[in-house]
Amino acid sequence: MKKITYLFIAISIVFVSCTKEEGCTDPVATNYNSDAENDDGSCVFDIVGVWTPNSVDYDISVIATLAGQTIYSMDTSYTSTPQDTSWDIDGNMEFTSSGTLITPDDTESYTTSGNTITITDSDGETTEATYAVSKTNLSITIVDSETETDMMGVTNVMNYEMTINCTRQ
């Protein structure tokens, strides 16, 4: 009887010791687990790094009204790439761990909270956007809305969404 008990204990120990630890196995991730042998899909990636913009998606709508009547309406969506003449992004964007955003044209500061990034330029003006980051891709979406009324009484409502798509260097 003792032999059977020892056999069950030995088999149990073998099975327990063969269990592979699960976790994030990607060393680039912020939650990398060097002990993990099986990737469980839990990897989290940071915005810190050098990113190359490869496309910008635009969604723009404008509605002009006069005395409550729509006199003009426009909706457009398009994508711009570095090959287009309308491309106006020069070079890479680098997000440092100290909260600095470096581009060929400017150096700004940034903070993140959840999936929101707030960029502050040298004049103290801020731009708030949402972002999504993976091991190799970053997308930053800026949404803006502006309403103005001109001297003729025409009210223009402009809605603007721009998503900058980048790859990690």
Can you tell me about this structure?
Strands 3-5-6-7-8-9-10-11 form an eight-stranded antiparallel β-barrel. It has one helix at residues 2-17; strands at 22-23, 38-39, 49-66, 69-80, 93-95, 100-102, 107-113, 116-120, 126-133, 137-149, 154-168. The protein has 169 residues and is mainly beta. The chain has two domains: 2-39, no CATH class; 49-168, no CATH class. 9% of the residues lie in helices and 52% in strands. It has one helix and eleven strands, in the order αβββββββββββ.
Short overview:
The chain has 169 residues and is mainly β. The chain is 9% helix and 52% strand. It has two domains: 2-39, no CATH class; 49-168, no CATH class.
Element layout with pairings:
Blueprint (H helix, E strand, L loop, with lengths): L1 H16 L4 E2 L14 E2 L9 E18 L2 E12 L12 E3 L4 E3 L4 E7 L2 E5 L5 E8 L3 E13 L4 E15 L1
Parallel strand pairs: 1-2
Antiparallel strand pairs: 3-4, 3-5, 3-11, 5-6, 6-7, 7-8, 8-9, 9-10, 10-11
Tally of strands: 11
Report Rg: 26 Å
Q: Strand sequence of the main sheet, in spatial order?
A: 3-5-6-7-8-9-10-11
Distance between the termini: 64 Å
Instruction: List the uncertain runs.
Output: none
Share in helix? under 10%
Strand content: over 45%
What string, H for helix and E for strand, traces the elements in order?
Answer: HEEEEEEEEEEE
Structural class: mainly beta
**How many domain regions?**
2
**In this structure, how is the largest beta sheet organized?**
8 strands, antiparallel, barrel
Mean pLDDT: 90
Shape: elongated
Number of helices: 1
